[in-house]
Amino acid sequence: QVQLVESGGGLVQAGGSLRLSCTASGRTFSRDTMAWFRQAPGKEREFVAAIFRSYGRTYYADSVKGRFTISRNNGENTVYLQMNSLNLDDTGVYYCAADATIILSSIREARNYDYWGQGTQVTVSS
After folding, report:
1. Sheet holding 18-25, edge to edge
2. Which of 2, 6, 20, 44 could crosslink 26 through cysteines, CB 3.0-4.6 Å?
3. What is the dihedral of CA 112, 113, 117, 123, to 10 degrees?
4. Distance in angstroms (rounded) separating the CA atoms of residues 114 and 35
5. Contact call for residues 67 and 122 (beta carbons, < 8 A)
6. Does residue 119 carry a pLDDT above 90?
7. Residues near 17 by Cβ (< 8 Å), separated by ≥ 6?
8. Is the pLDDT of residue 1 over 90?
């Protein structure tokens, strides 16, 4: 059974940092595209960052570029999201997603991912 489990969320003051982790199980994900999305209350789920297949190239939403870093440890089947300089707009539930066959032009669309975690809450306070 394929499973993605996120951890590392919490409450942080504006300007602070958090590191999210997503550990996959059930099969090897080293060749999958792994991504992070987030959803704020009353808003649609939005793309945050992705690391494309095994090539390792990374992609970010403009709103997080320069502040967030996505990385992966294939040996541990884990993807990370290092979040620095957090602001109030970063508040939301953060979801990990994975897909083995997604094409590059589709990585920013949530509907194209087959596997999802349950989400972890990130709350940034002023």
Report:
1. 3-7, 18-25, 78-83, 68-73
2. 2
3. -50
4. 11
5. no
6. yes
7. 82, 83, 84, 85, 86
8. no
Rounded Cα distance, 12 and 105, in Å: 33
Q: In the structure encoding, which two tokens stand for residue 46, read together?
A: 């939005």
In this structure, which amino acid lies at residue 123? T
50: nearest Cα among 39, 61, 38? 61
Buried b (16+ CB within 10 A) or exposed e, 28-66: ebeebbbbbbbeeeeeebebbbbbbbeeeeebbbeebee
Residue 56 has pLDDT above 90, yes or no: no
Which residue in this structure is represented by tokens 């602070």?
16
Q: Which residues pair with 83 in a beta bridge?
A: 18, 68
Question: What is the pLDDT, as a whole number, of residue 10?
Answer: 97
Contacts of 61 (CB under 8 A, 6+ apart): 46, 47, 48, 49, 108
> Which residue shows structure tokens 């003051």?
13
